[in-house]
Amino acid sequence: MRAGKKALIIVDVQNDFLPPDGSLAVPQGRETLPHICKLIEDESWVKEWDLVVATQDWHPRGHISFASAHPGEKPYTKIRVSKPSKGEQMDMFIWPDHCVPGTKGAEIEEGVRERLKPWLQDGRLAIVRKGYNMHVDAFSAFEGAVVDVPDPLAASPEVGRYLADKGIDTCVIVGLATDYCVCQTCLSSLAYEVDGRKTFKTLVYTPAVRGVSEQDSAKALEEMKGRGAILVGDEQALLQALKG
């Protein structure tokens, strides 16, 4: 693996997670957009990334995480459900329907999507979708699959292996939501191993993440930091961390 290859992971910047119309909108979610767009468009940043990964929540209708799939239950509550194929019970938060394939809510935000087109044309964009199993929710990008790459026959659909095979050793995480998918993606990145060795230096660029709950987001950031993530709060700090 060549040292120094870097991936920008853009987590779930989809219409359903953005105000004012998203069905599961992160209150300040739109504040991330200028920062994310700059990272993928500005010449001074484009040269930093060997690969851009954009993730999408991708839930079929009737998904186990939807309140509508559990008659009588309300969104934003915790219920008991059966683990797939195990017969055991587990707690699960349920949500409004969101990010259903074929709906506008599942699409990546228009401005980000447009700025990703050159990356696709250049062969440096991978799309990762997660949560597509009807019976399993998924928060981490590493629980998803790579579905759109220039040479899919040569690519592993398993995200960690795909990144490692690309020679990536540093992941910078941005997007939504800090207290859910950003946090879980970060923790998965930190924990991922190849041949028994930790694989990815992991950074979270805090101007470009927002969470559902301010309190839970603060706890999530502390957990990420405690596990070894580097939290960076401005562009200069990010550049320095990438060089370090």
UniProtKB/TrEMBL annotation:
Pathways per UniProt: Cofactor biosynthesis; nicotinate biosynthesis; nicotinate from nicotinamide: step 1/1
Positions of the Isochorismatase-like domain: 7-233
Pfam families, alphabetized: Isochorismatase
Keywords from the UniProt entry: Hydrolase, Metal-binding, Pyridine nucleotide biosynthesis
EC supergroup of this enzyme: hydrolase
Known EC number: 3.5.1.19
UniProt-recorded Gene Ontology molecular function terms: metal ion binding; nicotinamidase activity
InterPro entries from the UniProt entry: Isochorismatase-like_dom, Isochorismatase-like_sf, Isochorismatase_Nicotinamidase
A single GO BP: pyridine nucleotide biosynthetic process
Top-level taxon in the UniProt lineage: Eukaryota
Family statement: Belongs to the isochorismatase family.
Protein name as it appears in the record: nicotinamidase
